Amino acid sequence: MNKLLLVAAGAIVLGLTSQASAADLAARHYTKAPPLVSPIYNWSGFYVGINGGGGSSHNCWDFLTPAVLVPPLGPITPEGCHNSTGGTVGGQIGYRWQATNWVFGLEAQGNWADFSGSNTTFLGGNPLGGDNILTTKIDAFGLFTGQVGYAWNNVLAYVKGGAAVVDFKYTNALLGNLDQTASETRWGGTVGAGLEIGFAPNWSVAFEYDHIFLDNSTPTLSSSAGSSTFHISSDVDMGTVRVNYRFGGPVVARY
Protein backbone atom coordinates (compact mmCIF):
# COMPACT_ATOMS: atom_id res chain seq x y z
CA MET A 1 0.00 0.00 0.00
CA ASN A 2 2.78 2.37 0.93
CA LYS A 3 4.57 1.51 -2.31
CA LEU A 4 1.48 2.35 -4.31
CA LEU A 5 1.19 5.72 -2.57
CA LEU A 6 4.86 6.49 -3.29
CA VAL A 7 4.43 5.60 -6.99
CA ALA A 8 1.34 7.78 -7.28
CA ALA A 9 3.01 10.69 -5.57
CA GLY A 10 6.02 10.37 -7.88
CA ALA A 11 3.77 10.40 -10.95
CA ILE A 12 2.01 13.57 -9.75
CA VAL A 13 5.33 15.32 -9.12
CA LEU A 14 6.67 14.26 -12.54
CA GLY A 15 3.53 15.59 -14.26
CA LEU A 16 3.74 18.89 -12.48
CA THR A 17 7.42 19.23 -13.39
CA SER A 18 6.69 18.51 -17.08
CA GLN A 19 3.91 21.13 -17.13
CA ALA A 20 6.23 23.74 -15.57
CA SER A 21 8.97 22.99 -18.12
CA ALA A 22 6.48 23.30 -20.96
CA ALA A 23 5.29 26.62 -19.56
CA ASP A 24 8.87 27.85 -19.37
CA LEU A 25 9.49 26.84 -22.99
CA ALA A 26 6.33 28.63 -24.16
CA ALA A 27 7.35 31.78 -22.31
CA ARG A 28 10.73 32.09 -24.01
CA HIS A 29 11.15 34.76 -26.71
CA TYR A 30 13.46 34.38 -29.70
CA THR A 31 15.04 37.46 -31.31
CA LYS A 32 14.72 37.65 -35.11
CA ALA A 33 17.84 38.13 -37.20
CA PRO A 34 18.33 41.78 -38.31
CA PRO A 35 17.14 42.52 -41.87
CA LEU A 36 19.68 42.78 -44.66
CA VAL A 37 20.80 46.33 -45.45
CA SER A 38 21.04 47.38 -49.12
CA PRO A 39 23.13 50.56 -49.62
CA ILE A 40 21.87 53.32 -51.94
CA TYR A 41 24.46 55.51 -53.67
CA ASN A 42 23.74 59.17 -52.98
CA TRP A 43 24.40 61.54 -55.92
CA SER A 44 23.48 64.75 -54.07
CA GLY A 45 26.03 67.45 -53.25
CA PHE A 46 28.83 69.56 -54.66
CA TYR A 47 31.52 67.88 -56.75
CA VAL A 48 34.78 68.76 -58.49
CA GLY A 49 36.69 66.76 -61.05
CA ILE A 50 39.10 66.50 -63.93
CA ASN A 51 38.55 65.33 -67.50
CA GLY A 52 40.56 64.45 -70.57
CA GLY A 53 39.94 63.17 -74.06
CA GLY A 54 39.85 64.24 -77.68
CA GLY A 55 37.76 66.12 -80.16
CA SER A 56 37.29 67.42 -83.67
CA SER A 57 36.03 70.70 -85.09
CA HIS A 58 34.63 70.81 -88.63
CA ASN A 59 35.39 74.18 -90.25
CA CYS A 60 34.35 75.56 -93.65
CA TRP A 61 35.84 78.81 -95.01
CA ASP A 62 34.42 81.16 -97.65
CA PHE A 63 36.40 84.16 -98.93
CA LEU A 64 34.59 87.51 -98.99
CA THR A 65 35.78 89.77 -101.82
CA PRO A 66 36.86 93.18 -100.41
CA ALA A 67 34.11 95.77 -100.39
CA VAL A 68 36.25 98.28 -102.30
CA LEU A 69 35.88 96.07 -105.38
CA VAL A 70 32.29 94.88 -105.07
CA PRO A 71 29.38 95.49 -102.68
CA PRO A 72 29.98 94.24 -99.11
CA LEU A 73 29.73 90.51 -98.38
CA GLY A 74 29.97 89.42 -101.98
CA PRO A 75 30.72 87.57 -104.00
CA ILE A 76 31.54 84.62 -101.72
CA THR A 77 34.23 82.21 -102.93
CA PRO A 78 34.24 78.76 -101.25
CA GLU A 79 37.71 77.91 -99.94
CA GLY A 80 37.04 74.38 -98.70
CA CYS A 81 36.63 72.62 -95.36
CA HIS A 82 38.90 70.84 -92.91
CA ASN A 83 38.74 69.07 -89.54
CA SER A 84 40.74 70.37 -86.59
CA THR A 85 41.52 67.44 -84.29
CA GLY A 86 43.50 66.92 -81.11
CA GLY A 87 43.40 66.40 -77.37
CA THR A 88 41.90 68.26 -74.45
CA VAL A 89 42.23 68.33 -70.64
CA GLY A 90 40.36 70.36 -68.06
CA GLY A 91 38.18 70.40 -64.98
CA GLN A 92 34.58 70.76 -63.87
CA ILE A 93 32.65 71.85 -60.80
CA GLY A 94 28.98 71.35 -60.15
CA TYR A 95 26.11 70.57 -57.82
CA ARG A 96 23.53 67.77 -57.97
CA TRP A 97 20.42 66.93 -56.02
CA GLN A 98 18.53 63.64 -56.11
CA ALA A 99 14.78 62.95 -55.86
CA THR A 100 14.12 59.19 -55.70
CA ASN A 101 15.91 57.92 -58.83
CA TRP A 102 16.00 61.29 -60.65
CA VAL A 103 19.13 63.42 -60.47
CA PHE A 104 19.33 67.11 -61.44
CA GLY A 105 22.44 69.26 -61.65
CA LEU A 106 24.27 72.39 -62.75
CA GLU A 107 27.88 72.36 -63.97
CA ALA A 108 30.65 74.65 -65.23
CA GLN A 109 33.53 73.12 -67.22
CA GLY A 110 36.73 74.69 -68.54
CA ASN A 111 39.25 72.98 -70.84
CA TRP A 112 42.54 73.62 -72.57
CA ALA A 113 42.58 72.17 -76.08
CA ASP A 114 44.87 71.59 -79.03
CA PHE A 115 42.49 71.02 -81.96
CA SER A 116 44.21 72.00 -85.20
CA GLY A 117 43.71 71.37 -88.92
CA SER A 118 44.10 72.98 -92.33
CA ASN A 119 43.42 72.69 -96.04
CA THR A 120 45.13 74.09 -99.15
CA THR A 121 43.02 76.40 -101.28
CA PHE A 122 43.49 78.37 -104.49
CA LEU A 123 43.46 81.97 -105.66
CA GLY A 124 40.24 83.22 -104.02
CA GLY A 125 41.55 83.71 -100.51
CA ASN A 126 45.05 84.85 -101.44
CA PRO A 127 45.30 88.51 -102.53
CA LEU A 128 48.89 87.91 -103.71
CA GLY A 129 47.91 85.04 -106.02
CA GLY A 130 48.85 81.37 -105.79
CA ASP A 131 47.88 78.67 -103.32
CA ASN A 132 47.47 79.34 -99.63
CA ILE A 133 46.86 77.25 -96.48
CA LEU A 134 43.90 77.95 -94.20
CA THR A 135 44.31 76.76 -90.59
CA THR A 136 41.80 76.65 -87.74
CA LYS A 137 42.92 76.04 -84.17
CA ILE A 138 40.94 75.74 -80.93
CA ASP A 139 43.00 76.30 -77.78
CA ALA A 140 40.30 76.52 -75.08
CA PHE A 141 36.58 76.13 -74.46
CA GLY A 142 34.04 76.32 -71.64
CA LEU A 143 30.65 74.69 -71.05
CA PHE A 144 27.88 75.93 -68.74
CA THR A 145 25.15 73.30 -68.56
CA GLY A 146 22.18 71.86 -66.74
CA GLN A 147 21.79 68.10 -66.27
CA VAL A 148 18.93 65.62 -65.95
CA GLY A 149 19.72 62.01 -65.12
CA TYR A 150 18.29 58.71 -63.87
CA ALA A 151 20.18 56.63 -61.33
CA TRP A 152 20.25 52.88 -60.81
CA ASN A 153 21.96 52.99 -57.41
CA ASN A 154 25.61 53.79 -58.25
CA VAL A 155 25.05 54.02 -62.04
CA LEU A 156 23.84 57.35 -63.45
CA ALA A 157 22.81 58.03 -67.05
CA TYR A 158 22.33 61.71 -67.87
CA VAL A 159 21.84 64.27 -70.61
CA LYS A 160 23.04 67.88 -70.48
CA GLY A 161 22.63 71.12 -72.39
CA GLY A 162 23.45 74.80 -72.17
CA ALA A 163 25.90 77.42 -73.40
CA ALA A 164 29.42 77.04 -74.81
CA VAL A 165 32.30 79.43 -75.45
CA VAL A 166 35.28 78.56 -77.68
CA ASP A 167 38.58 80.37 -78.38
CA PHE A 168 39.68 80.20 -82.05
CA LYS A 169 42.87 81.13 -83.85
CA TYR A 170 42.92 81.46 -87.67
CA THR A 171 45.82 81.56 -90.09
CA ASN A 172 45.84 82.27 -93.82
CA ALA A 173 49.36 81.24 -94.91
CA LEU A 174 50.38 83.29 -97.97
CA LEU A 175 53.40 83.12 -100.26
CA GLY A 176 56.62 84.36 -98.69
CA ASN A 177 55.46 83.53 -95.15
CA LEU A 178 53.26 86.64 -95.05
CA ASP A 179 50.69 84.91 -92.81
CA GLN A 180 47.42 86.64 -92.09
CA THR A 181 46.15 85.82 -88.60
CA ALA A 182 43.23 86.52 -86.29
CA SER A 183 41.80 85.20 -83.05
CA GLU A 184 38.33 85.42 -81.55
CA THR A 185 35.99 84.01 -78.93
CA ARG A 186 32.76 82.53 -80.23
CA TRP A 187 29.62 81.65 -78.25
CA GLY A 188 27.17 78.88 -79.03
CA GLY A 189 25.15 76.06 -77.53
CA THR A 190 26.01 72.54 -76.44
CA VAL A 191 24.25 69.22 -75.85
CA GLY A 192 25.72 66.03 -74.46
CA ALA A 193 25.15 62.71 -72.75
CA GLY A 194 27.10 60.62 -70.29
CA LEU A 195 27.25 57.48 -68.17
CA GLU A 196 28.71 57.84 -64.67
CA ILE A 197 29.60 55.04 -62.25
CA GLY A 198 30.24 55.48 -58.54
CA PHE A 199 33.11 53.21 -57.52
CA ALA A 200 33.48 54.51 -53.93
CA PRO A 201 31.18 56.47 -51.56
CA ASN A 202 32.43 59.85 -52.88
CA TRP A 203 34.22 58.95 -56.13
CA SER A 204 32.84 58.37 -59.62
CA VAL A 205 34.09 57.98 -63.18
CA ALA A 206 32.13 59.08 -66.25
CA PHE A 207 32.26 58.72 -70.02
CA GLU A 208 30.77 61.72 -71.82
CA TYR A 209 30.08 62.93 -75.38
CA ASP A 210 29.43 66.60 -76.20
CA HIS A 211 28.51 68.52 -79.36
CA ILE A 212 28.99 72.30 -79.63
CA PHE A 213 26.95 74.41 -82.05
CA LEU A 214 28.55 77.73 -83.03
CA ASP A 215 27.23 80.76 -84.88
CA ASN A 216 28.92 81.59 -88.19
CA SER A 217 31.70 84.16 -88.00
CA THR A 218 33.27 86.70 -90.38
CA PRO A 219 36.78 87.41 -89.02
CA THR A 220 39.27 89.64 -90.82
CA LEU A 221 42.78 88.15 -90.93
CA SER A 222 45.61 90.66 -91.16
CA SER A 223 49.34 90.85 -91.83
CA SER A 224 51.85 93.43 -93.12
CA ALA A 225 50.75 92.43 -96.63
CA GLY A 226 47.11 93.35 -96.08
CA SER A 227 43.96 91.69 -94.82
CA SER A 228 41.33 89.20 -95.94
CA THR A 229 37.82 88.63 -94.61
CA PHE A 230 36.32 85.15 -94.45
CA HIS A 231 32.97 83.62 -93.59
CA ILE A 232 33.69 80.61 -91.29
CA SER A 233 31.24 77.99 -90.01
CA SER A 234 32.31 75.57 -87.28
CA ASP A 235 31.01 72.93 -84.90
CA VAL A 236 32.78 70.69 -82.39
CA ASP A 237 32.43 67.05 -81.31
CA MET A 238 34.39 65.54 -78.43
CA GLY A 239 34.52 62.63 -76.03
CA THR A 240 36.03 62.75 -72.53
CA VAL A 241 36.65 60.57 -69.51
CA ARG A 242 35.85 62.33 -66.23
CA VAL A 243 36.71 61.59 -62.58
CA ASN A 244 34.65 63.39 -59.92
CA TYR A 245 34.90 63.73 -56.15
CA ARG A 246 31.62 64.53 -54.42
CA PHE A 247 31.31 66.44 -51.12
CA GLY A 248 27.77 65.18 -50.45
CA GLY A 249 26.37 62.93 -47.73
CA PRO A 250 27.25 59.28 -47.13
CA VAL A 251 25.67 56.25 -48.74
CA VAL A 252 22.05 55.87 -47.55
CA ALA A 253 20.89 52.51 -46.16
CA ARG A 254 17.75 50.89 -47.54
CA TYR A 255 16.02 48.06 -45.61
Give me a quick take on this structure.
This protein has 255 residues and is mainly beta.
Question: Would you kindly provide a written description of the structure presented here, covering whatever features stand out?
Answer:
The chain is mainly β and 255 residues long. It has 2 domains: 1-30; 38-254, Lipocalin, CATH 2.40.128.90. The chain is built from 1 helix and 11 strands. The protein has an 8-stranded antiparallel barrel. A two-stranded antiparallel sheet has the order 1-11. Strand 7 (180-200) and strand 8 form a beta hairpin. The longest helix has 26 residues, at 2-27. The chain is elongated, with a radius of gyration of 36 Å. Mean pLDDT is 84; it is low at 4-9 and 250-255.
